[in-house]
Amino acid sequence: DRPIVLCCTGATKDMGKMLGGEEEKDPDAQKKEEERQEALRQQEEERKAKHARMEAEREKVRQQIRDKYGLKKKEEKEAEEKAALEQPCEGSLTRPKKAIPAGCGDEEEEEEESILDTVLKYLPGPLQDMFKK
Question: Where is it located (predicted)?
């Protein structure tokens, strides 16, 4: 019977480190690390460029759909709504209260009216005639 022989050259290096020996320094370790970092950066840039191209393609398709159906972007809609709120419409029946100049409006018409005159305004025509006589 033959004895079993294990051959582990890597194990002897690790044993030396465990026993307090110094690690063998790879002279090209820093250069390799820099190359690895550069490769990672390059992969990340390629990934970002790919995603930017895909998003541009998606936006192109979205715009075609908007054009086909007459839709507007969310940002455009919000901008138009904001502008519509800021600009009062010409001929609008409602206007902001700030736009009424002081001293204008109902105040001039109500020059010391009596209560009887006010009540008469709201009565039907024949009744108004009766009270006026």
Answer: Cytoplasm, Cytosol; Nucleus; Perikaryon; Presynapse
What gap in Å lies between CA 80 and CA 73, rounded to an integer? 11
3 state SS for 46-101:
HHHHHHHHHHHHHHHHHHHHHHHHCCCCHHHHHHHHHHHHHCCCCCCCCCCHHHCC
CA 128/CA 4 separation, integer angstroms: 128
Q: pTM for the complete prediction? A: 0.39
pLDDT tens digits, 74-115: 888 888 888 877 776 565 566 555 556 666 655 545 556 677
Mean pLDDT computed over 38-54: 97
Q: Could you tell me which of 125, 104, 128, 124 has the C-alpha nearest to residue 116?
A: 128
Tell me, what's the pLDDT at 74?
A: 85
In the chain, domain spans: 30-86
Contact 8, 15 (CB under 8 A): no
Q: How far is CA 23 from CA 15, 20, 70, in A?
A: 11, 9, 70
